[in-house]
Amino acid sequence: MSAAAMSLRNGWRGLAFIAIPVTAIAIFLFYPAALSIIGTLVRPKDGGGYTFSLQSYVFFFTDSYSLTNLGRTLWTTVVTLILLIAVNLPIALYMRFTKGPLASVIQALALFPMFVPGIIICYALIRYMGPNGWLQSLLNLVGFHHYASPHLTPWGPVIGLIWDGMPLTLLILISGLSNISDASIEAARDVGAGRLRILVSIITPEITHSLLIVSALNFLGIFGQALMPFMLGPTNPEMMGPFMLRTFSSVRDPLQASTQATITFLICSLAGIAYVRSISRRPKEDRT
Amino acid sequence: MSTLELENVSKQFGAVSALEPLALRIADGELVCLLGPSGSGKSTLLRIIGGFEMPTGGKVLIDGADVARTPPEKRPTAMVFQSHALWGHMTVEGNVGFGLKLRGLKKPGIAAKVDAALSLVGLTDYGKRHPAQLSGGQRQRVAIARCLVLEPKILLMDEPFASLDQHLRDRLREEVRQIQKKLGITTVFVTHGQDEALSIADRIVVMSMGRIEQVGTPAEIYTHPETPFVAGFIGDMNMMKTTIESGAAMIGGVRLDAPVADGEALVAVRPEDVTLIPTPNGEGARVRRIVNYGAVLKIEAEAADGAVWRVQTLKDVPVTEGAFYRPTVSRHIVFRDDRVVHRVDPV
After folding, report:
1. A281 touching B, CB under 8 A?
2. Model-level pTM?
């Protein structure tokens, strides 16, 4: 068999290999998503036939309640992202540059949420930080009686989402940090850099790629969240996840729910584009 | 320019002793190689000098000031790492100028010094490139420039050419030697390559098991090893156990002077100090293998008592495989209890 024929055969084999998952994605994801998006733009006319209409989008962007919900979703996403990185970066740095049993214990604790279902996390947090929960009882014991529970406030979902997002964030940051050699840190110390300067000038630029991935993946996960905001957050304003759910099942307005979903999808796709660009811009070895 | 003195420097890692207490003085402008096998403690010693490891005991004196407890960023030393350790997000100029920036120099001053350092290592036109766009040799030059630009009192080099191919290693070694001589900078160079140490060093410190075995010039180390370890580690050596009787040792059909007390001993003979003289009637040692290294031949000749002589001759010397020769030895060393007890040098 000629090389060209073999190459062609291998190409067909490759396509056959991915055919089933690609078909499944097309049928169960892209097709209904496309139908839904098109359904928000192409509406049936009274006298029969269809017409192009942006009416549902005009409603969304002129309805103060919808806009407040979008604003709350953005606020929760950005605040959670910042806190996730702020909490996990020191842990990742500690685990990267410290060896020993304590680092292993911290790693196990930090990765523990990965093995706990979200609904369990929600109920555990309600029992812990909710009104008359364990935290309040503990604080009462030590004489602090002014505890204000974050449950059902905007901080409720933030706390739950940080808990939920910790393992993935930590794993990606540790992976990024493991690419920084001990020698490059020592070289920085050797030329006179202190700890803060090394963090700012050497470590942070070297893990920009990981920070981008962490930000993009968490943005996607947080922005579209329904469970945590539903269980732990306020109902007015509310995040886009529960807002969509309520519009669809309680208000029974599938058009407006689809419009909210399309807007959520478009905003999330910005993070998706940033993620894909970050992946495709890995440093290339261009040795001359 | 500066001197470096180590006084009773030792290092323990838990129960393991990485360095026995040792002392060493390196003169101003000297290039000293720390040479030894893996685990000998040479890199630990270099890292102690650079401040990356704290010694368990002892003093590290640079120009008389003890810096044993001073962190690396405050020491007047600069280290070239085996893995280059360049910062991939910075350009070559950024890498070289980073230390100057930390010292608060203004941009024009940094640019001038960076240009001078890059010119010194032959990378004048590479300032705007990133490390990923450079070859292995070029990266190591940048690492050297990054150190030199800070004008350190002591330059430390941790197997800097280990990751490069032989040809490039030879070339860079020569270049580093020229730069070091030109600047007169006191340098400590760690290597496990004896050729590298012999060709570049003013003095060699041979280390084994966390101890200094011998300190000397390359010629002294090569011709007058003071311990069996040094004799066996540096260059090729015939190391033969023997019994001394009446002031002489008989090895592989050769009688070697050894005017010491009778008893067990170890005799060391360099292959180039053995000459093979053709003999008739199957007397002497039979040549069983000849390997041509271009300029020299390396020969193995087996004597009647089973002893095998490794011999090195110039390529023009006629030697035939299977033929018999009488070995004669022009230089040998006799060791007993890990010390030299007798040495014979050519007249």
Report:
1. no
2. 0.81
